[in-house]
Design brief:
about 425 residues, Methylamine Dehydrogenase, Chain H, 1 helix, disordered C terminus, RCC1/BLIP-II, RCC1-like_dom, guanyl-nucleotide exchange factor activity, guanine-nucleotide releasing factor, RCC1-like domain-containing protein
């Protein structure tokens, strides 16, 4: 079984004063959720040593996209660190991959090869959105409830999802609050409520919860106060904002170690979390523990913001793709001789394409065009780009394979070392032949 990865610790030495926010009543009407009306074929590429490809115990790696045999029509997909989550047309959740810490949300013990094949998670209602981190999964139900399972991890190892430890089965993580959207980082979850509030829980070491001081972000903060502070990290609570701002939000995104919040009826983006390569759009290379306005991100009208470990890819409402952060392995897509991007830059190799979807893995980036083409760039060490090689790609590269040639891609999700693709079969116009 692959070893779990350790999280980097934050290095900021300045405490930040937390202000309790008091907002006027606000109702969030429209929320941008992933479309779940289109059925697709699930394809996978990359590492599959713990079952995350869903291709059975004999297939441990693929360098080109391979189709996963599933009995249910799939409308959405999420790649976790070492597991995969699929949402069916009926609103059911299927999972496969590493289940050491409960990320699959179902029993696999005593069942041979159960982690290598898709299995259904038992949930009380129809699911409308899914998200996944390194070792956890979350599901938003049609009634606004959120269930999660698995665990969070920090630099010391396993945090658990609750004070009881790992949650191996779905657990209602935020009660008495109606949630409209969720987002998962590597080890934290972000919730957007029907009143435009943002809640967070999980690891806080890089500032990604947006509601702790640096001193209060570690599990070591329990010293002398029992489990009180640690419990607050695991319990979803509102982010910290100055009361005078009176802010409400209408969209959220999560990076591996950061959080992005869009102000309602505005282009302003507030961010918090790890910023050691400017990946959350702030100038000072330190973790930000409270939500801070990113003037750089606020210049654009975003459709999707997706982040890996040290970089961010953004898709604006006009279908243009942008990048910021660390250059290594070509993850920015800005070319061989580019430098780290300290400000948001246009990915010029996609300037003649209308892009409809983007996604990041740890050190990978992907874009889907309106024509159903899939472009990938960044680290290719484990075949996660799907190019057929293990070379890195420094510019957006068209992903081709036998399995993709008769399909149009409409969604992609990339995890630690594998990528999941959702594509629709192209119907031939010549099905009746000549008279």
């Amino acid at each position: 079984m692959a070893n779990k990865r350790r999280r980097p610790t934050s290095i900021d030495k300045n405490d930040i004063t937390i202000s309790k926010s008091k907002r006027a009543k606000f109702t969030l009407e429209n929320v941008s959720l992933p479309e779940v009306n289109r059925e697709g074929v699930v394809l996978v590429t990359g590492a599959g040593d713990v079952g995350q490809l869903g291709l059975g115990p004999d297939v441990l790696e693929k360098s080109r996209a391979a189709a996963v045999k599933l009995d249910n029509p799939i409308v959405d997909i999420c790649a976790g660190g070492m597991h995969t989550v699929c949402l069916t047309k009926e609103g059911k959740v299927l999972t496969f991959g590493c289940n050491d810490e409960g990320a699959l949300g179902r029993t696999t013990e005593g069942k041979e090869d159960a982690e290598f094949e898709a299995g259904q998670v038992e949930l009380p209602s129809k699911v409308v959105q899914i998200s996944a981190g390194d070792s956890h999964t979350a599901a938003l139900l049609d009634d606004g409830r959120v269930f999660a399972w698995g665990t969070f991890r920090d630099s010391h190892g396993n945090m658990g999802m609750t004070l009881n430890g790992n949650e191996k089965y779905p657990y209602e993580i935020l009660k008495d609050v109606v949630v409209k959207k969720i987002a998962s980082g590597a080890d934290h979850i972000v919730f957007l409520t029907n009143h435009g509030d943002v809640y967070t829980c999980g690891c806080a070491e890089q500032g990604q919860l947006g509601r702790t001081t640096e001193r209060g972000s570690s599990r070591n903060a329990r010293s002398g106060v029992g489990k009180g502070q640690f419990a607050k990290l695991l319990e979803p609570l509102p982010i910290s904002l100055k009361p005078s701002l009176k802010l409400h939000f209408d969209n959220i995104w999560a990076s591996n170690y950061g959080t992005f919040c869009k102000v309602a009826n505005s282009d302003k983006i507030y961010v918090c979390g790890l910023n050691n390569y400017n990946q959350i759009g702030l100038k000072e290379l330190v973790p930000y523990f409270t939500p801070t306005l990113s003037k750089d991100f606020s210049k654009y009208r975003w459709h999707i913001i997706s982040s890996g470990q040290h970089h961010t890819i953004g898709l604006d409402l006009d279908g243009k793709v942008y990048a910021i952060g660390r250059k290594d392995y070509g993850r920015l897509g800005l070319g061989k001789d580019c430098e780290d991007a300290f400000e948001i830059q246009r990915v010029k190799d996609l300037s003649d394409k209308k892009v409809v979807h983007v996604a990041c893995g740890t050190a990978t980036s992907f874009a889907v065009t309106s024509e159903g083409e899939l472009y990938g760039w960044g680290m290719g060490t484990n075949g996660q780009l799907g190019t057929g090689e293990e070379d890195d790609c420094e510019v957006p590269t068209l992903i081709k394979s036998k399995q993709l040639q008769d399909k149009k891609v409409f969604r992609v999700s990339s995890g630690g070392q594998h990528t999941v693709i959702l594509a629709v079969q192209i119907v031939s116009n010549n099905s009746h032949g000549d008279a």
